[in-house]
Amino acid sequence: MNIVASxxxxxxxxxxxxxxxxxxxxxxxxxxAPGDVVLLQCYTGGNLTPxxxxxxxxxHVVASNGELHVDSSAKDPRLTxxxxxxxxxxxxxxDDTGSFLCSSxxxxxxxxxxxxxxxxxSGPNNVSTMIxxxxxxxxxxxxxxxxxxxxxxxxxxxxxxxQLNLTFSGASNNNTSxxxxxxPVLNYTIKDIQPSNQGVYTCSxxxxxxxxxxxxxxxxxVYYIPxxxxxxxxxxxxxxxxxQLNCSWFGAYxxxxxxxxxxxxxxxxxxxxxxxxxxxLQEGQTLTCTARHELLKIENxxxxxxxxxxxxxxxxxxxxxxxxxxxxxxCREISSVPAANTTWRKGQSEEPIVPGSxxxxxxxxxxxxxxxxxxxxxxxxxYFCRSENALGIRExxxxxxVKASSSAYTGAVIGVFLAALITGCAFIVAKxxxxxxxxxxxxxxxxQAEDRGDVVDLVESDDEQIFQDAVxxxxxxxxxxxxxxxxxxxxxxxxxxxxxxxxxxxxxxxKEEPTEELTEESREEVEELVSF
Length: 532
Hints:
This protein has helices at residues 2-20, 410-435, 437-441, 464-468, 520-531; strands at residues 24-32, 38-40, 52-57, 60-64, 79-81, 87-89, 98-105, 111-120, 125-132, 135-136, 142-145, 150-157, 162-170, 176-181, 185-190, 199-207, 212-223, 231-235, 242-248, 257-260, 267-268, 271-277, 286-292, 302-307, 318-322, 327-332, 341-346, 351-352, 359-364, 367-372, 382-389, 392-403, 455-458, 488-491, 498-501. By secondary structure, the chain is mostly beta strands. Among the domains are: 27-120, Immunoglobulins (Immunoglobulin-like); 126-223, Sandwich (Immunoglobulin-like); 231-308, Immunoglobulin-like (Sandwich), CATH 2.60.40; 312-405, Immunoglobulin-like (Sandwich). A six-stranded mixed beta sheet has the order 10-11-17-16-13-14, with no helix packed on it. Strands 1-8-7-3-4 form a five-stranded mixed beta sheet, covered by helices on one side. A hairpin with a 6-residue loop joins β18 (231-235) and β19 (242-248). The chain is rod-shaped and about 175 Å long. The termini are far apart. Residues 1-22, 449-461, 463-468 and 493-518 have low confidence and may be disordered.
């Protein structure tokens, strides 16, 4: 009871002294972690040594070198009162958290009052970062596949308040904050992960009381491969005795492994070039390049192949040209694998053609063209389009025929003469046919020389009665129909001869009167005329 009264009097005295004499009073907040050494300061205004100093915590005197004595219940060997009035606490524990009051008398009779709030905090502890689903490599690096969805979880524990922050550091940015929370757990999701999301993810836990920060970082790799197969191609070389093949598969991470053939070793590269000697190659041979990657299973390995082909130049084997003009010889070679080296040569000795004013070499797509300027008889030789690759040599033989310029019109003259001859013959034949049209129509023939002078005209006559009685009748046919007899009468005339042919159908109701029997010769003539 006496102790409580004395403390109350001390506190009242300190407050009154600070008010009357204008003594200094300060308030500070100080934090420490368990196990730390803390120094609580009472006077910071100079180097004066206080006459006496008293420290109290929770209304108990914990340290004093003045008239007040330390309570036995609050006595702690970890507490030490320094000469300048500061209180030292070694190996701080969580129970040390609380308010400390200090009162100190200086030699100039000034009193210093201080209020120190000590906060003993722990943590952040157990800071961790989880990324799933992902593959864990032996070095603890995580691997995901391009296009996957990933979940991130950041966790930590502190004895007091804390703040969690998830940051990302990649190739194009550094320490980008993705999310933060005051909760002990932070969740974050990335859908459709891309190569740009590859980098280091850091979970930072900050104790807001002690300002202590703990970080945990995890590296994430994003694997991906191209959608297509590797590319196989042949590489042009100056030496045709060998062939170079290139296999490339760009756009994969990490770098793939490539191999030519079935017996070789895989090499870590995205472009593999091999050189093969001519002696090991043959027409139609197929060479295969295989690509291997961590994202591909063995049965799903991707590959490409290339089939070797000998050259086959194509073009016109014979070319004709007039003397004094220009001519262009064309040669095309597109089937060879690897690509053949194609050149133009001249003569039986196959001398290489050197470009100049006489010979002009040009390339238009797959065509190699040779233009010969101002053709002469000297140029009438064989020309060779020579194609060569590692599988062999093939040539296209072209013979150039040079014609004299005077013979250029011979064909035209002959053509005009033949056209005129055919036209004249056709005119003569047409005129002959026209002049003999009556003879031909009467069955006399085309080349008949005799002019019979008889003209047959089928006319209608009003004088039917003249010949009515003289026309004999043919006997009726078996089908009951009647046949009219046609009789030819020759009427003499001085200018022309006219044969009048009259037909007299017999009325079906009347009976046929008997007629004279015709002679066999007359009957044949009549039948012939009727047929005509």
